[in-house]
Amino acid sequence: MMTTLLYDASFDGLFTAIFEVFEYHYHDAEIINREKFQQENIFAEIHEVITQTEKSDRVLKKLEQNLGKQGIHKLLKVFLSEDPELEKLILSAVKQSIKHSEENILENFADADIMKISKICKSIDRESHRMTAFVRFEKMQDDIFFSKIDPDFNVLPLIRKHFNDRYQDQKWIIYDLRRNYGILYDLNNCEFFYPDEKLDVKNYQDKFHNEEKNYQTLWQRYFTKTNIVERKNLKLHIQHVPKRYWKYLTEKW
Predict the structure, then answer these.
(1) How far is CA 142 from CA 148, 212, 216, 217, in A?
(2) How far apart are the first and last CA of the chain?
(3) pLDDT of residue 110 exceeding 50
(4) Which residue did the predictor score with more confidence, 240 or 193?
(5) How confident is the model at residue 231 (pLDDT cuts 50, 70, 90)?
(6) Strand pairing of 45-48 and 190-193?
(7) What's the chain's Rg over C-alpha atoms?
(8) Rounded distance between C-alpha atoms, residue 88 and residue 18, angstroms
(9) For residue 195, what pLDDT band results from cuts at 50, 70 and 90?
């Protein structure tokens, strides 16, 4: 019987679900974002996954032994790609990694899932490069630099280090219009921020310079009056990569 594992769309939630596939010996299993779930197979058994970081960490530790940090980096890219089959692809890669622990299964391009993982990684690499090459900042009041992006993939976690390393002498914000979150650098820390409300950047290009006061209010409201960690949209936050996994987001070790 097919078992459908429902998770909360978070990185830790996904890897908790993968852990439980092995823990409960689900041989025929699928993992689905709870919010996107529509039961089509009335005979499927539903398993509700409760996110547990200790379980997700155990999966990542095992994967690091089998695939190395570069392998985990590729699976992180698949997660950030928002591909409709990301759960299937990552679960497939983990299963193959466990079964063939002595091999670099991510090089087995004869396998359809591994080939798709490779294609996704190339696509998200191109998008990350495009963002690092073409992001343009506009100066706001208080010498804060603001840039909006609308990437095809969720690449902010992949480009954070690039901008943190290169722009350390000024305060800046990079905001993802499509996903309603961004990166903030305040001369000391480079962190993600998750506004409680969607930032109003409609007709941004036409109105930016006439709305500096509005953006100054935005800055005060979201970034300077409260601790960033406490000022976040938790529902959105869980969809992104927790800080303890940032070490896997760079390809230079």
Answers:
(1) 18, 10, 8, 11
(2) 43
(3) yes
(4) 193
(5) very low
(6) unpaired
(7) 20
(8) 10
(9) confident
**Given pLDDT bands bounded at 50, 70 and 90, which one contains residue 103?**
confident
How would you write 16-63 as a 3-class SS string?
Answer: HHHHHHHHCCCCCEEEEEHHHCCCCCCCCEEEECCCCHHHHHHHHHHH
Which pair of structure tokens corresponds to residue 198? 């969607």
pLDDT score at 230: 45
Q: Where are the beta strands (DSSP E) in the chain?
A: 3-7, 29-33, 45-48, 138-139, 144-149, 171-176, 181-185, 190-193
> Which range in 53-57, 182-186, 221-225 is most confidently predicted, on average pLDDT?
53-57
Q: Would you state the structure tokens that stand for residue 109, as one six-digit string? A: 């391009």
Between β-strands 144-149 and 171-176, what pairing exists: parallel, antiparallel or unpaired?
parallel
Tens of pLDDT, residues 20-36:
999 999 999 999 999 88
What's the whole-number average pLDDT of the chain? 85
For residue 146, pLDDT beyond 50? yes
Could you tell me the CA-to-CA distances from 13 to 16, 78, 120, 242 in Å, in that order?
5, 15, 21, 11
Residues 52-84, buried b or exposed e (16+ Cβ, 10 A)? eeebbbbbbebbeebbeeebbbbbbbbbbbebe
Among 112, 87, 78, 90, which residue's Cα sits nearest to residue 37? 87
Query: From CA 28, how far away is CA 3, in angstroms rounded?
Result: 6
Angstrom distance (rounded) from CA 131 to CA 127: 6
Structure token pair of residue 15: 């890897």
DSSP-assigned beta bridge partners for residue 191? 184
Token output for 83? 């591909």
Instruction: Identify the residue whose tokens are 């990079």.
Output: 174
